[in-house]
Structures are given as C-alpha cells and as structure tokens.
C-alpha cells in the first residue's frame, strides 16, 4: 500500500515538473521572439532598400552618354552580321508586316517596359522607365538592319521613332549576332546619321556572359559596332 501511494506521488510530481518546464520554455520562446523582432524588421527594411537600389540606377548613371562631337564615319570599320544572322534577316516573313529582325510594341508611359528580344531582334532591346514620354502609350520599334548591300552586311540597329524622351532610356546591344570574335572591350559603339556622320558612345557596360553592351541615352537614333 505504501509503495502504491509513493508511485502516485511520483507521477504527480513529474507532471507538475513537466508543466513547469513547458511554461519556462514558452516564456523563453516569447522573450526570444520579442528580442529578435526588431532585428527582423530592420533586416526586412534593409532588404527592400537593397532591391530598390538594384532596380533604380542613380541619376548620374542615367544621363545620356552620347558624344556631342559629330564627325564623318567613312573610314570607320564597322562590324558585320554573322552568316547565321544574315540568313535570319534574309528569310521571308512568316506573316504580313512581320519583318525579320524587327519588333514593334506599344509601351505605356505609366508602366514603362521593354521592346526587343533574343528571338526577334537578336538580343537588341530598349527599356523605358515609367513616364519616359508624355503620351499615354507610344509605338516603339527596334529593328536589326544593314548599312550596306554586302553579304554579310555592316550591322546596324535602328530605334524608332526618332525623338527625344523625358528621361534616359536603356539601350542594350548584343554583339553575339555579329561575325566578331574579338575582345568585346575593344568594340566601339557609334550613333549614326543619314548623311554618314555620327559619333561615339562614350560609356557603356559590357556583360560578357550575356554578350551585350548597354548604355543610357535620352533620344533614339541608329547604332553600329566598330573595331
């Protein structure tokens, strides 16, 4: 009988101890959450700030990088499209108005957006930030074309319509579609005029992995690569 009473008391004591341990752990968990909460909020705010900084370049980096000096380009050795790219450019259009090497889209001023793609314009694109122009929507065209009638021809990218914008737009030109296998840092990017004159893009960013060069400009024109 005494053994039975002792066993019951031991079970009661163990349950009481377990409740105390559970209560202590819950209190420690609550205190830990209270301690970590401010750090969690700070980390979240820091992450949001970093994301914003990553998608919004400083204004100093968004100014036009087109040389003001205009000169004759008759002696410039322009890069040419590769044989594979020429085959795509000379291929018949699958649909009426669907010109090979060209992409046309309507961009909303409020939302901004990108025209051009790897498939349609061989990686040559333009990105608009919101409110880059006054109209609610604007028809934008990116076109891969030729400077001459040779085969392969001297490569040219045309952006239309020819106009100035409220803020700089981001041009990306792909050199992977060219018949060029040299150092991409030795390439020069020229803006072109109808009379054969033009100038140099003074600053651009090379992405070797993507095979592109990118820069900000505040107006549309035509571009070519030289080396």
Overall form = elongated
Compute the average pLDDT. Answer: 81
Could you say how many structural domains there are in total?
A: 2
What portion of residues is helical?
Answer: 25-40%
The SS-based structural class is: alpha+beta
Unreliable spans are 1-9, 48-61
Oligomer: single chain
In terms of DSSP E residues, the strand content is 25-35%
- Tell me the Rg in angstroms: 31 Å
Q: What report would you give on this structure?
A:
By secondary structure, the chain is of the alpha+beta class. The protein has 3 helices and 12 strands, in the order H-E-H-E-E-H-E-E-E-E-E-E-E-E-E. Strands 1-9-8-12-6-5-2 form a 7-stranded antiparallel sheet, with no helix packed on it. A hairpin with an 8-residue loop joins strand 5 and strand 6 (155-160). The longest helix is centred in the N-terminal third of the chain and has 54 residues, at 2-55. The chain starts with a helix and ends with a strand. Mean pLDDT is 81; it is low at 1-9 and 48-61.
């Amino acid at each position: 009988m005494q053994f039975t009473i002792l066993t019951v008391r031991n079970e009661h004591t163990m349950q009481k101890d377990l409740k105390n341990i559970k209560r202590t752990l819950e209190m420690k968990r609550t205190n830990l959450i209270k301690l970590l909460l401010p750090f969690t909020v700070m980390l979240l705010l820091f992450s949001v700030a970093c994301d914003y900084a990553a998608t919004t370049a400083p204004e100093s980096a968004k100014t036009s990088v087109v040389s003001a000096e205009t000169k004759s380009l008759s002696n410039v050795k322009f890069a040419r499209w590769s044989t594979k790219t020429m085959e795509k450019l000379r291929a018949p259009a699958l649909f009426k108005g669907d010109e090979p090497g060209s992409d046309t889209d309507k961009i909303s001023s409020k939302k901004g957006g990108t025209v051009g793609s790897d498939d349609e314009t061989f990686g040559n694109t333009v990105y608009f930030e919101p409110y880059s122009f006054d109209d609610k929507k604007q028809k934008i065209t990116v076109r891969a074309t030729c400077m001459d009638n040779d085969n392969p021809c001297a490569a040219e990218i045309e952006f239309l319509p020819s106009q100035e914008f409220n803020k700089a737009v981001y041009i990306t030109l792909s050199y992977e579609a060219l018949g060029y296998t040299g150092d991409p840092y030795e390439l020069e990017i020229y803006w072109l005029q109808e009379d054969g004159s033009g100038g140099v893009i003074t600053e651009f960013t090379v992405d070797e992995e993507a095979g592109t060069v990118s820069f900000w400009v505040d107006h549309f024109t035509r571009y070519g690569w030289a080396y």
